[in-house]
Design goal:
This protein has a domain of 138 residues. Strands 1, 2, 3, 4 and 5 form a five-stranded mixed sheet that branches. It has ten helices and five strands, in the order H-E-H-E-E-E-E-H-H-H-H-H-H-H-H.
Length: 296
């Protein structure tokens, strides 16, 4: 009995030490195809879940409690043999220090996710070659999630992951699939990654760090100072908006953060919000219903 217990403890320890980077849920919605109960959709869902959570994406060691929470919902609109037309909604979050709250970090709606897939076909990722558009799309978003998460803990901490996402983009650009090239629209993966690596948007990374590490993470010990830091971080984004009004990068930030920002500045210790609300209405006018609730 003692030997069995020791074995289990060793097994748990090894599993904990070798935990992968993501703790991701994957859902496939095939209602629009009119055949939502086909086995191929369930198989694909299982394979994607295993692919995302079991692939070793970095050379870093993550403990179980350090894994990044995320969610992917693949909505399949058309299915014909091994050809799929779909969209992907992906969200990620990170825990706030000394709390039970998870802060949303990434909220991206990818409309360009067409791919081919045969049931039980292995999902293998090779950074240096293009094999499957679905695998490339998922890998792109995984590295973007890793990069944005790192940005919230360390100044410019995500750059190495954004560079990998760029390499995926460049490799996939020679494929016939959309979303990978400069002329694939203003809300493509190419455009988002290009913005993340451009000095034109350097304030974004500064704001991500200040908002989370210097703001949210000190909320439990000094809520007034935390709110001021968060307000300053948001106001930094105005520089981007002045140069690139209605930029995709800033819009995606507010898609993730609008409800949270409303909640932060609708209670607790008072800080000056005049400039903040003015900037919020300029940078994210589609979220005006949220900003209208920020009142003191």
């Amino acid at each position: 009995m003692r030997k069995i217990l020791l074995f289990l403890l060793c097994t748990i320890a090894v599993f904990s030490a070798e935990a992968q980077e993501l703790n991701c849920t994957v859902n496939i919605d095939a209602e629009q195809t009119g055949q939502p109960n086909l086995q191929i959709f369930r198989t694909l869902e299982t394979q994607l879940l295993e692919f995302v959570n079991n692939t070793k994406w970095t050379d870093k060691e993550y403990k179980n409690q350090e894994r990044i929470d995320c969610n992917m919902t693949l909505v399949i609109s058309q299915y014909d043999g091994d050809t799929f037309n779909a969209t992907l909604q992906i969200q990620s979050s990170r825990p706030v220090f000394d709390s039970t709250y998870d802060s949303p970090v990434y909220n991206y709606y990818d409309k360009q996710v067409n791919f081919t897939y045969k049931e039980y076909e292995p999902l293998n990722f090779n950074m240096n070659s293009f094999g499957s558009n679905l695998v490339s799309v998922i890998a792109f978003h995984v590295y973007t999630v890793l990069g944005l998460d790192a940005d919230t803990y360390t100044p410019n901490g995500g750059e190495q992951y954004f560079e990998i996402a760029k390499q995926i983009t460049n490799t996939a650009a020679s494929s016939p699939f959309t979303g990978w090239k400069a002329n694939d629209g203003t809300q493509s993966r190419f455009r988002y990654n290009d913005a993340l690596l451009s000095t034109v948007y350097k304030e974004f990374h500064e704001a991500m760090y200040q908002y989370h590490r210097q703001g949210l993470d000190v909320m439990s010990t000094n809520p007034k100072d935390a709110k001021q830091k968060i307000a300053e971080a948001i106001n930094k984004l105005k520089g981007i908006n002045d140069r690139r009004p209605n930029s995709f990068l800033v819009r995606t930030f507010f898609d993730a953060k609008s409800d949270e920002i409303q909640a932060i500045f609708s209670g607790g210790p008072q800080v000056d919000i005049t400039k903040l609300v003015e900037n919020l209405n300029r940078m994210a006018p589609t979220k005006q219903s949220n900003w209208a609730e920020i009142k003191f």
